[in-house]
Amino acid sequence: MTHDDALRMAAARARAAEMLPYLATALFACTPVRSDDVPTMAVDDRWRVYWNPAWCAGLPVRELAGAWLHEVGHLLREHATRFAELGEPPELAIMFNVAGDAAINADLDDAGVTLPPGGVHLGHIRGAARGMTAEQLYRLLPRRPDVSTVDCGSGATPGRRPWEPDPSTVDEAHRGIDADRADQVRRQVAAEIRSAGQVPAGLARWADDLLDPHVDWRTELNSVVRRKAAEVAGTRDYTYARPARRTVPGVILPAMRQPRPPVVYAVVDTSGSMDRDRLTRCLSEIDGIVQRSGRIRGPVRVVSCDTVTGELRPVRSVAEVVLTGGGGTDLRPAISAVARSRPPADLVVVLTDGDTPWDPAPPRENRTARYVAVLVAGDRHDVPRWFRKIVV
Ligand SMILES: [Zn+2]
């Protein structure tokens, strides 16, 4: 019987990919995990899809395909991260799950997908309208955690669930994907949605949001936040020892504490080769960083550099950025100055045309930060491997 179940799950995934081909990349990035402990079907933050064999056995493949598309919707839309960003009490996560379900299902209803019975649809939420985001729908819901037992797992709202394995005991085949790979999958799916003809409105907007800024600073910043959260998981962010814990049938959710906001530094190349147009582009990227990090609070610390490192200034709006320079280019002193700065950087963004010497390794003073090089309209694209390179 086990074999039959797994085959039906595989058939349902293939069916889902046939129905909405632009989601195929996301569907096949998932790792299915059979579990008697999960009540229905759920996802985790490593894109594992837990499925209950008894529940699945009672559904036609058509509806199982709908369930696949639903669960993948939580992962693409980063519902777990978005709930964490709201700063709401953890016991209300379940209501965000409900809101996310309604947003996903609105699109699937539009696309003519049949879902398993019992799901949340827009019509169940008073005041809900087509095109509302999960955050907007969440605000319409009662602030009571006990009105729902919906739980799509840690891929939908933060916190490891009882059916999700301890990461240290998982074998290679069930390890799932990491946050960087997940971001790649999201970008690819967004690109496929853009080139597809008929797409539900919510998915089209999601793809535009993801792809529109030259650099997706939301993803970059989230990736830093997630990495930090993973480093301290179990010791600081998630705790089962807090009174905030709460039970729903068969589930104990941990209380979640927010990690501190990421510390972001930007180094702007202001050498002579950076003309007005290039500097304007740099400013628009800094604006993107400021806008995105505004949601998680904290200034972006900006320094301009040609061969001389300028003054490091915290800015909360792009209007506060002062760029000085105009000489030759050597960004290395500025990068190491940033690496020595306090508070220590989580993310260092270097904006340049690439015409600068680079060090072969990250500065000794800060090897844990994520370093991103944004290459603006230059021809020099050779950047050392310790940078994530983005060409705009
Ligand atoms: Zn769901």
Automatic annotation (TrEMBL):
Residues 8-256 form the Putative metallopeptidase domain. Signal peptide: none annotated. Residues 149-168 are annotated as: Disordered. It holds the Pfam family DUF2201_N. InterPro entries: Put_metallopeptidase_dom, VWA-like_dom, vWFA_dom_sf. Residues 266-363 form the VWA-like domain. PANTHER family: SLL7028 PROTEIN. This is Metal-dependent peptidase. It comes from Virgisporangium ochraceum. The lineage of its organism: Bacteria, Bacillati, Actinomycetota, Actinomycetes, Micromonosporales.
